[in-house]
Amino acid sequence: MHRVIPAALLSVLASAVQAQTSSDFNCNNFFRYGDNPEAINQAFLKDPEAMAWNWFVCLNQSATSQSLARVWEQLKPTDQVFLADGDKPLPYDQREPTPLAVIKQATALGMDPNQIFHNLDSTQQVDGLILEMGNQVPAAQKGQPVRFQLLMGQDTFDYILDKGVYNANGQAALTSSLSFPASAWELKTSWIWIGTDENFKAQLEKDGYYITQAYYLQNGSQYQVGYAALSGMHVINKLTPDWVWMTFENRSNSKYTVTNAIPPAPMTNTTGPTPAAQQANTNFQASYPSLSQYELIGVQYTAGGAPKLLANSQLESAFQSQSSCLACHGTAAYSAQKGYFSFALPEQDGIVYPTEPLPDSAFVGYNKLDFVWSLKRAQWKR
To answer: Is residue 141 situated within a structural domain?
Structure first.
């Protein structure tokens, strides 16, 4: 059982915490913390790992009774926010159409053209390297990169639009730092590329991976279309001033992803699961079989708090010993004269990343971007 809130707390708070620590957590309007954000905040502070799991469950509910998609798949992908030409994006609920070439390939492959196709448009991690597939993957997949996608919630999107920072022009015109609303959310997901290999797909399904339709543009000209398996997910929101940083990954990732050592070794997570995350994993995995092969690695939510290090083996693979979600994102800042702040510290040839928040003096001349590094994807409107 989870930890119990003292009976002396207000009844409404006790009710919220009871919901938090049971399988009937109320997911209604969870992106805005339901009807009582303060109660959710207090419940989170009492047991961050249980709340992280409850949010993960809410994110992975079916979006509608008619759709196979999960709630998080309805969030806005950043490639549809920060457009290549710097133009204003479509409204939050409208999507750019899936490329016709993708639909044609998918139809020929027997895939469902009416369901979501994720554009897995990224492969580089923060350090500029890729994470390679290996170990027990098919020979044709060895050396292929794990792919990534970023998504954001509506209130994140609305704030970006309101401030006009969806392109680099808007960011250059800033006269003060940004401050996103408490209901801002972002996700970063990592994916093992399956393609059309049905045996590999079945193997990953057996290991509890969530599998969906996806595509990416190869060499700027040819679309690759197929299936992909969700290997990891960063979940962040601004319930607390320093944001809440939660990360999940599949327990079998070491079977399919490898280090960049010679010879490669199975990729593992060196930062967790933390002891508190282990307890939450035990409780929630038993209650949610469809998510039971995913585990919470840990939660960060306050500068200087524990855990100091937090990484996802799929998203911060090679620099887990220097990975702090909160400290790294705390450097998000932009200067019209200097460009984006460099979070690589001038030590060891610039490959050291902050694990503690930097002092305010480091950001003189910059406007801070309120931890939101996805803004760096913005392009100039010419």
So the answer is: yes
